[in-house]
Amino acid sequence: QVQLVESGGGLVQPGGSLRLSCAASGNIFSINTMAWHRQAPGKQRELVAAITSGGSTNYADSVKGRFTISRDDAKNTVTLQMNSLNLEDTAVYYCNADVRTYDGYRAAYWGQGTQVTVSS
Questions:
Q1: Which of 18, 38, 49, 101 has the CA that lies 20 to 30 A from 70?
Q2: With a cut of 50, which residues of the chain have pLDDT below it?
């Protein structure tokens, strides 16, 4: 089995910063793309940022220039640095990883989510 555990959410004022981290563990042979998604109340889950095993990144237009995604393959972690946060960034943030296991299976795994609240 594979587990993804997020950390780093919380309450921040507009204009502030937060850093989210996600650690993958378990039966992991390799990880392709790692990503962060978010879901605000009453809205569909959306992709925030993704990073491939080769280091290529892509971001939602709404976070470009403010958020930075990075990964540490030695630790199987992915991090999302969020700067200049605004009220519209309030959501539950989910980590996602495309994992190949040692027994040859490939699947997408999700973390349990971490709440980010931007409020004055």
A1: 101
A2: none
Query: Residue 109 in contact with residue 24, Cβ under 8 Å?
Result: yes
Beta partners for 115?
A: 92
Which residues pair with residue 36 across a beta bridge? Answer: 49, 95
Place of tokens 């994992």: 99
Q: Give 111's DSSP letter.
A: -
pLDDT in tens, 58-89: 999 999 999 999 999 999 999 999 999 999 99
Burial of residue 15 (CB within 10 Å: 0-12, 13-18, 19+) is exposed
Take residue 20 and report the two structure tokens written for it.
């989210």
Q: Name the CA dihedral angle for 82, 61, 5, 106, rounded to a multiple of 10 degrees.
A: -150
